Amino acid sequence: MTTKIAQVEHRNQPAMTWRQIFHKAAVVMNHWQDRHHTRQHLQDMPEYLLRDIGLDKQERQDEVNKYFWQR
């Protein structure tokens, strides 16, 4: 038996179970971790590689300064 957590009435969708909620949370946290690691690698990237991917120093710094949850 599954426990229903919340009903979204305006969408006429069934309520989410705890398992679905935890799964979605894990997916979001994995995205955040990927962004964090990508920005760490970007910080350490030499200038010639930045040019290869079409970024300059300021664009790199702007991206690196973002919080992990920001796109």
UniProtKB/TrEMBL annotation:
Report the domain of life of the source organism.
Bacteria
- InterPro entries for the chain: YjiS-like
User: Which Pfam families does the record match to this protein?
Assistant: YjiS-like
Domain (YjiS-like) spans 30-60
Q: What is this protein called?
A: Uncharacterized protein DUF1127
* Species for this entry: Celerinatantimonas diazotrophica
